[in-house]
Amino acid sequence: MGIGKGTLTVIVFSLVGIVICFFRDSSASPQAIIALGIAVPVIVLIIIIVLPKRSLKTDKKVYVPTDNYLLWKLLITIGMGLVLCILLCVQVGIKLSIELTAQRTETIDRKEEFDDQQI
Question: In angstroms, what CA-CA distances link 30 with 25, 42, 97, 98?
Answer without folding.
Answer: 6, 19, 21, 19
